[in-house]
Design a protein that fits this description.
- The chain is α+β, with helices and mostly antiparallel strands.
- The chain has a single domain, classed as Nuclear Transport Factor 2, Chain: A (Roll).
- The protein has a six-stranded mixed beta sheet with strand order 2-1-6-5-4-3.
- β4 and β5 form a beta hairpin.
- α5 crosses α6.
């Protein structure tokens, strides 16, 4: 898969709540980074297994039902693509509406994600989740970041 196909497939898996399949798109030693991570939230997750563990419970936290906006930008580097998108659905714990915008800078090689830098707003996410502590607890399960 080329990077654009990989992104399309990743969003389909997200909507299908197939987190094992989603994590399986990473290279064995791939990375997931959160450059704007809030305090207590992981800044980097290394390795497909660790990414799978991190993402495993995502559908129990956020019920993503649609991707109402998506723009894919190719770069001068054929292995790097920039994805702008919005995800919408519900916060599972509260049934409150969820809508968040993201920008991801994705490096893919040989049909696998090598690096996924996820730029999202911790302030917006905390507001949606019911506060910074609720956001951190939801995604870290109380584990140290």
């Amino acid at each position: 898969m080329n990077p654009r196909e990989l992104v399309d497939h990743a969003l389909t898996l997200l909507l299908e709540k197939d987190m094992a399949g989603f994590a399986g798109l990473w290279a064995e030693d791939g990375e997931l980074e959160f450059p704007f991570a809030a305090a207590g939230y992981p800044e980097r997750i290394r390795g497909r297994a660790a990414i799978a563990d991190y993402l495993r419970d995502y559908p129990n936290i956020l019920d993503v039902r649609e991707i109402p906006e998506k723009a894919v930008h190719e770069t001068a580097d054929p292995e790097v693509i920039i994805l702008e998108f919005a995800a919408a659905g519900l916060v599972v714990a509260t049934a409150r509406p969820y809508r968040m915008r993201y920008i991801a800078v994705i490096t893919a090689r040989d049909g696998a994600i090598r690096n996924y830098r996820d730029y999202w707003s911790p302030l917006a996410a905390a507001g949606i989740m019911g506060g910074a502590d609720a956001l951190t607890a939801a995604f870290t399960g109380g584990r140290d970041a």
